[in-house]
Amino acid sequence: KTFGSSKYGCLEATIAATLLDREARSAILEADPFQGGLKEPLLKVIGVMRSMEFSPAGSRPATRFNDMAVLIGEMAHDFPTVFGFYLPSYEPNGVIGDAGLVSPESVLLDMSKNINLLNGMFSLARYGLSGCFNGFGQNVGWNPCQLGNFDNASGKLTYVDYSDVTTYVDRLATLLTAGRLSDESRQIIAKSSWATDYVYDGTIGPIHALSLLLTTPEFHTNNLAKKNGLVRDEYKPPENSNNSYKALVYIMLSGGCDSFNVLVPYTCNGTTALYDEYASERGSVKLDRNSLHVISAGGQVCSEFGLHGSLNNIQDLYTKSELLFFANTGVITKPSTKMNYWQNSKTALFGHDSMQREAKRINPYDSTAQTGVLGRMADVMTADNYTFGSFSIDWHSEALVGKAGMSPAPSTVSQHGTNAFNSDSLSVNMNNRIIALNEATSADSGVFSEQWSAEMLHSLLKNEALHSALSGTTIETNFPDNHLGRQLKMVTRLIATRETRRVDRDVFFVQMGGFDTHHTGDLNSLFSQLDEAIGAFTKGLKELGVWESVTTVQLSDFGRTLVPNSGGGTDHGWGGNYMMFGGDVKGGQVKGKYPDKLTSDGQVTLDRGRFIPTTAWDSVFKVVAEWYGVSVDKLVDIVPNAHQFEGDTGFENFVTSDLFGNTDRQLRGWANL
């Protein structure tokens, strides 16, 4: 039999090919615990709206969601990075990782996004598409949020067909789980919905049934779930330790920061000759020498550098010996020259995806596959009995990924904080019913179903504890209302909860975009935002009394070409200038080797002012890891490629005392006593 019109793009033929495929018709495959996967968050929401016959309000024909990319981690046309929403080879903690399987969608299966997804779908069922109780929309009216009242909504779910509760639950199971929902779960939902109906005089049962079903593993995955009748172990916070506290913060300036307009040659070998080279090469994007903040540096080609005029707080930190710069630093596989750099590089050069990924991994030969540099620190130190917190703000980061099961899974927290779960519950026992729907499963149950249930229940308990802890914190420091400022404020608030969370080590990942300035970009605005956020973060940490215990490293995909393009912007480069700051950082110095020649005949200068890095991130993070507490014998696990640069006179290698142990700050402290 033939389906469709035989024309390219025919939907009838596409649907027929999908439904008639042997995998779609196989009952055996459905019973395979390793078959299937987790559904994507946005598809879950759209699936509910389509199956439950969402109808927009007459005054709002266009359906609009609010901040879905932050709430659930996914939205059409709103990618967090050029890599998309997922990590292709991601192995999560839990049964999937234990089975040696990958699950890209599990990247978004974190505490905040699980809570936000469920809250948003509950709100959609109870109040329509609105902002009521952390909904996915915005209120279109001024009425208070009331159960079953859709006056504030831009649309609502209209499918009811509620003759009796058992039949209705069966229909929901067909529509939303393709019939996979177990008989036991159907009975739990029907019984609870009947009891709720009794309390609310028969009006709320359908809403309650839908809300409960939306928490089941059969809805969130394409697996069968087989319960074993046992109760899951409760989440328990870590035991208090006697280790002192330290935190490491990773700031990614996404897109490739034009960092040769951060650190500019000013007085070099007693003259302005290198600045003149800079001005000639930079052309229309050069910074006027009189606009720069002047800083002193020893051991460099320049005795004085100029900072971009917007970097007032950064200049202040440098002057106080609490911030240092790494000159001409970046991702590089092994020591290289202009003759062999292309052959020597394991990382594909000059591309956002490959260069930013490697800046997060710092592991070019994948000796510990698909892990990030911060995740490996967490793995090693968890094995040494440190208690760990691992957080990214707004977006999951590969930098935090460790080997499955070796350390606590990283959590993604919104810049706005956490939300209470199910704060408008339809029943005092609803959370208990949700737990019952996601209890422990048998060995032949679907691994993706088990992953959802375990992660979701863990999220409920972890979110409750973190939400309570964050609600009890107050930060007096005023942070700027920009994206990086809000992220760093959340990092500060999380650090303030360290004792409540019982951790002695934290790692944080934050990201600021906008630096891919191929066309004329407003670096003044970007650098002002960066500077204001770092200034407030510094004050916040000092307010908490942890300034000496927190180190922040700033990176980017790469530097940019010194020579501008025809559009008035700059293109993808390689080596760049970056900063590290903190109370224990030995600041007031420029480390690495700033290029002594900026024209094309320079020893490390490639075409259009791209510079071969002379300091590798491997060498930097080796020392950072040691400061953080990683034992010397395990540093190779953190930066397995660092040995490539040891003993090479053309590359900078550091020991801890080069970068940490702020003697100047300590002397100033004694002088003030």
Task: Please give a structural write-up.
There is one protein chain. The chain is α/β, with parallel strands linked by helices and 673 residues long. It is 36% helix and 11% strand. The chain is built from 25 helices and 14 strands. Strands 3, 7, 8, 9, 10, 11, 12, 13 and 14 form a nine-stranded mixed β-sheet that branches. Strands 4-6-5 form a three-stranded antiparallel β-sheet. Helix 9 (183-199) packs antiparallel against helix 10, helix 9 packs antiparallel against helix 17 and helix 19 packs parallel to helix 21. The longest helix is centred in the last third of the chain and has 25 residues, at 447-471.
Main structural class:
alpha/beta
Average pLDDT works out at: 91
Rg calc: 28 Å
- Fraction of helical residues: 25-40%
Shape: elongated
What's the tally of helices? 25
Distance between the termini: 91 Å
Into which percentage range does the β-strand content fall? 5-15%
Largest sheet composition: 9 strands, mixed
Question: Which terms would index this structure?
Answer:
single chain, 673 residues, alpha/beta, nine-stranded mixed beta sheet, three-stranded antiparallel beta sheet, 25 helices, 11% strand, disordered C terminus
Helix/strand layout:
Elements (H helix, E strand, L loop, with lengths): L10 H10 L1 H4 L1 H5 L9 H11 L2 E3 L11 H4 L23 H4 L12 H17 L27 E3 L7 H13 L5 H17 L5 H9 L3 H4 L25 E8 L9 E6 L4 H10 L10 E4 L5 E6 L4 H8 L3 E8 L10 H4 L7 H10 L11 H11 L4 E6 L17 E3 L16 H8 L9 H25 L11 H14 L1 H4 L3 E8 L10 H22 L5 E7 L19 E7 L7 E3 L22 E2 H12 L6 H4 L17 H4 L3 H9 L2
Parallel strand pairs: 3-10, 3-11, 7-13, 7-14, 8-9, 8-10
Antiparallel strand pairs: 1-2, 4-6, 5-6, 7-12, 11-12
Helix pairs in contact: 7-10, 7-18, 8-9, 8-10, 9-10, 9-17, 19-21
